[in-house]
Design goal:
- The protein is mostly helical.
- Among the domains are: about 5-130, no CATH class; about 320-455, 3-Layer(aba) Sandwich (Rossmann fold).
- The chain has helices at about 10-20, 30-45, 55-60, 65-80, 85-95, 100-105, 115-125, 130-285, 295-300, 310-320, 320-330, 340-345, 355-370, 405-415, 430-435, 445-455, and strands spanning about 335-340, 375-380, 395-400, 425, 440-445.
- Strands 3-2-1-4-5 form a five-stranded parallel sheet, with helices on both faces.
- Helix 6 crosses helix 7 and helix 12 crosses helix 16.
- Keywords: Coiled coil.
Length: about 450
């Protein structure tokens, strides 16, 4: 078996194979099965192509370090099912094993040899008594497994003993700590008892002091009652004196009334003389009577008065007057806030939104340059605006954020200004005008700005 069989020996090989097919395959221990697979995988490429089964040709092409792992299942199945293939593989494996292979072929198992290696070679070469060799290897492997299990159990027992010793040491340390803590608690308990005795003594002293205070309070209450009686007597005496003083005052009022009647007569004579002189002067200057007082002019300019529809219509007309807008912009440190689309859709509705914004911002730049005032224009930001040209100097361009409107942003700008600063809001939206007016701003209609821009 140490020499490779030639093609002339194949009938003898096939006869031996046929004799072996009648015996069932033994169950190999797992280490023996893995070693058989490794030996067969290493010898597989040395077989000629005509002696290699078709199923093994693909496995033979695997890399040596991957052949046993990837093709082990196919190799084991082929060895069990194809005695001729197994005999060819065994010839090369036995040759590679050297003296150990020759001893196995002779049916002798060296005592110093690895039982797994002996069983693997015996399975492939199948000398006389090969099943006994495999069985002995299985017993040896099982003995090693049992020995390893006993060693593992011994290690686990040692580890548990070490852990138990460690736990005992930890428990001893914890017990020492608990004894120290108990001593400390006892010491604190003694201190608490001392404090309780001191507090009891202080409580008794406080109760005695309270009793003394109660006695003193009763004494003071008697004294206060006497003082209150004296006070009531003094009040009655003062009331008597007050009645006498009131009688004297009534007498004085009567005398003063008589004196004032004379003074009133003299004053009436003087006023009548002045009135006649004023009437003559009015006729001489030809002055017509006025239906408005100075406060009416102030109210018409900067305030609201409910219940006056005529003045409301006049004020509405004033909000579209560009001259009124010029007067407001002439105020020092004025701030002009413009409702952008409210103005552009009234004046440039035929243009696109981009052209409307550009034209309005350009016109506001001229106003800012002429007046030096702060100018802010606000647009609704529901749609995102791309490619907006830079704003002129002195003009701030704002877009409301998503979920907000330009009207709300205008009201926030007005509320953010300090009280007393002139703020002019351009919008024909009545709700916006009323809202900013309540916060001290001057609302003007969109037409006032459009007329002002048309003059520029």
């Amino acid at each position: 078996m140490s020499e490779l069989p030639t093609s002339g020996d194949r009938p003898e090989e096939e006869a031996a194979v046929q004799d072996a097919e009648f015996a069932p395959e033994p169950v190999l221990p797992e280490p023996v099965r893995q070693r058989v697979t490794v030996l067969a995988a290493a010898a597989l490429p040395s077989l000629p192509a005509d002696e290699m089964p078709v199923q093994m040709r693909r496995v033979a092409r695997f890399a040596p370090n991957r052949r046993a792992r990837l093709g082990g299942r196919e190799i084991a199945a082929q060895l069990a099912a194809d005695p001729l293939f197994r005999q060819r593989i065994s010839g090369r494996v036995v040759t590679d094993a050297g003296d150990l292979g020759s001893a196995i072929v002779a049916g002798v198992a060296p005592g110093a040899a690895d039982p797994v290696e002996v069983a693997a070679l015996a399975y492939l070469a199948r000398p006389d008594g090969w099943r006994d060799l495999i069985e002995e290897a299985g017993h040896a492997v099982q003995a090693e497994a049992d020995s390893a299990a006993v060693a593992n159990q011994l290690r686990d027992a040692e580890q548990r003993a070490a852990r138990a010793e460690h736990d005992r040491a930890v428990a001893k340390v914890e017990a020492d700590k608990l004894r120290d803590e108990l001593a400390r608690v006892r010491e604190e308990l003694g201190q608490v008892r001392e404090e309780a005795r001191a507090n009891g003594k202080a409580l008794r002293e406080a109760q005695a002091a309270q009793k003394r205070a109660s006695d003193l309070l009763a004494t003071e209450k008697g004294r206060a009652a006497r003082i209150a009686a004296d006070h009531d007597a003094e009040v009655r005496r003062l009331k008597t004196r007050l009645a006498e003083a009131e009688a004297l005052a009534a007498t004085g009022k009567a005398a003063a009334k008589e004196a004032r009647a004379a003074d009133d007569a003299r004053l009436w004579l003087l006023i009548e003389t002045i009135g006649q002189a004023a009437s003559g002067l009015r006729r001489e200057l030809a002055l017509n009577p006025s239906d408005k007082m100075p406060a009416d002019f102030v109210a018409d300019a900067v305030a609201d008065r409910p219940g006056s529809p005529e003045r409301s219509r006049a004020r509405a007309q004033d909000t579209d007057d560009p001259g009124r807008l010029d007067q407001l912009l002439a105020l020092p440190r004025a701030h002009l806030i413009v409702d952008g689309y409210n103005v552009t859709k009234r004046g440039f509705a035929e243009m696109s939104l981009e052209q409307q914004r550009k034209r309005l911002i350009t016109g506001l730049g001229g106003i800012a340059a002429q007046t030096g005032d702060e100018v802010t224009v606000v647009f609704d930001g529901a749609e995102r605006v791309h490619g907006l040209p830079p704003a002129p100097r002195g003009v701030r361009v704002l877009f409301s954020r998503k979920g907000d409107t330009a009207d709300e942003l205008i009201r926030q700008l007005v509320r953010g200004e300090p009280a007393g600063r002139p703020i002019v809001v351009i919008s024909s939206d009545r709700e916006v005008a009323d809202g900013v007016r309540r916060h001290g701003a001057y609302p003007m209609g969109a037409d006032s700005l459009l007329r002002r821009l048309s003059r520029s």
